[in-house]
Amino acid sequence: MTATVISLDKTVKTTGVSERFVKTVAASVFRRLKDDSAIVGVHFIGDKRMCGLNFHHRGLNRPTDVLAFALRDGDKFADKKDWGDIFLCVPQIRRQAKRFRVSYREELSRMLIHGLLHLAGYDHERKEDANVMFSLQEELLFNII
Question: How wide is the angle at C-alpha 19 spanned by C-alphas 14 and 23, nearest 5°?
Answer without folding.
Answer: 140
